[in-house]
Amino acid sequence: MAGNMIVAVILVHLGQFWSLNDQGGWMLELQGMYFFGAVAILFLGSGRMALRPD
Questions:
Q1: What is the DSSP secondary-structure string of the chain?
Q2: CB of 20 within 8 A of CB of 31?
Q3: Fewer CB near the last or first residue (10 Å), C or N of the chain?
Q4: Distance from C-alpha of 8 to C-alpha of 4, rounded to nearest angstrom
Q5: What are phi and psi of 46, to 5 degrees?
Q6: Is residue 39 a part of any domain in this protein?
Q7: Cβ atoms < 10 Å from Cβ of 35
Q8: Do 46 and 53 contact (CB within 8 A), yes or no?
Q9: How many Å apart are CA 4 and CA 10, to the nearest integer?
C-alpha cells in the first residue's frame, strides 16, 4: 500500500505536495496518514497471530 500511495502522489497530487489548505494544514494530510500507516505496519510485521505456512 505504501508503494501505491507514492505512485498516487506522484501522478495526481504532486502539485499539492508543498501546499497548505484553508485551515493551514498540509494539503496531502489524508494521503500522508495512509502512507505512514502502511509503512508502520510494514515495519511492525504481522505479529504472533499471523497465518504462516509451515
A1: -HHHHHHHHHHTSGGGTT-B-TTSSBTTHHHHHHHHHHHHHHHH-S-TT-----
A2: no
A3: C
A4: 6
A5: -85, -15
A6: yes
A7: 19
A8: no
A9: 10
Cβ atoms of residues 44 and 2 within 8 Å: no
For residue range 3-49, list pLDDT tens digits in order.
888 888 899 888 888 999 999 999 989 999 988 988 888 888 877 77
Name the pTM for this structure.
0.69
Query: For residue 31, what are the domain limits?
Result: 2-14+24-43
Domain tally, the chain: 1
Evaluate whether residue 54 is within a structural domain: no
